[in-house]
Design brief:
Blueprint (H helix, E strand, L loop, with lengths): L12 E7 L3 H11 L9 E6 L6 H7 L3 E4 L5 H11 L4 E5 L4 E2 L3 H11 L3 E10 L4 H23 L8 E5 H7 L12 H9 L4 E12 L8 H17 L1 H4 L1
Parallel strand pairs: 1-2, 1-4, 2-3, 6-8
Antiparallel strand pairs: 4-7, 5-8, 6-7
Helix pairs in contact: 1-2
Length: about 240
């Protein structure tokens, strides 16, 4: 693992990355994290969710913390990583995300400048798919996501592929989130339980590349993605009011 750079600002950051059978994308993600330009993470936690490829070996070879979660599903895996986090801010990426070189630096800036901020969710561009579609497509997708979820819950939601939130707030809600429900979007779930009095903001300086694969699969998979979104909304109907 590359030598960690000196932390120069107030908060400390744990990065959590759930993974299942995504070894080479994970390697790319970790390389980006260990090559941050100015400020590095205080710890990086990879949560292996039953991989049968060499994802765990990649994590160990990069010198990061490795946690195993046997309960299947991204909600269970992500929650296990959040529980294991030791530092002030929990930052979240997918294994196939690639954070910008100043990603940790901009997360520091967001929380250092606003002590009342609970969560920050960032901007993204697609790493794959038609080149002319990558930036515009991701922008349209995230705008639609923020608008729809924002209308449903009257608050800004976290975006699981690129977000960060305070560990103390996670500890307050971790017993209420739907860790094991495969039909639940864990970012919508967590945003809902944070409630209307905890402020989440969109910070476009917190940037990461993400995969467009969930939106380029067969219609059945895309339909399931939207169904999970509606299930996540109606499961929190009382919180949305």
């Amino acid at each position: 693992m590359a030598q960690l750079k000196r932390r120069t600002t107030g908060v400390s950051v744990s990065v959590v990355i759930p993974v299942k059978d995504n070894a080479e994308h994970l390697r790319r993600c970790l390389q980006a994290l260990t090559s941050q330009r100015i400020i590095a993470a205080d710890e990086i936690i990879v949560v292996d969710n039953g991989s049968i490829d060499h994802s765990a070996s990649v994590a160990l070879s990069m010198g990061v913390r490795l946690v195993f979660e046997d309960i299947p599903g991204i909600g269970a895996a992500a929650s296990a990583g959040y529980d294991a986090a030791q530092f002030d801010i929990i930052a979240r990426l997918d294994a196939d995300s690639v954070p910008d070189a100043d990603w940790i630096e901009n997360i520091h800036a967001a929380f250092d400048h606003d002590p009342m901020l609970v969560g920050v969710t960032g901007a993204a561009h697609f790493l794959d798919g038609p080149r002319m579609f990558r930036r515009l497509g991701a922008s349209l997708y995230l705008t639609l996501y923020y608008l729809l979820v924002g209308v449903f819950f009257a608050r800004t939601p976290l975006f699981e592929s690129n977000c960060a939130f305070r560990r103390e707030d996670w500890r307050e809600v971790r017993d209420r989130v739907h860790r094991t429900d495969p039909m639940m979007h864990d970012d919508v779930d967590l945003s809902s339980h944070f409630g209307p009095n905890r402020r989440i903001t969109i910070d476009r300086a917190v940037r990461a590349g993400i995969s467009s694969r969930p939106f380029s699969g067969p219609p059945r998979d895309i339909a399931l993605l939207w169904r999970r979104g509606f299930d996540s909304r109606f499961a929190h109907d009382s919180l949305a009011r």
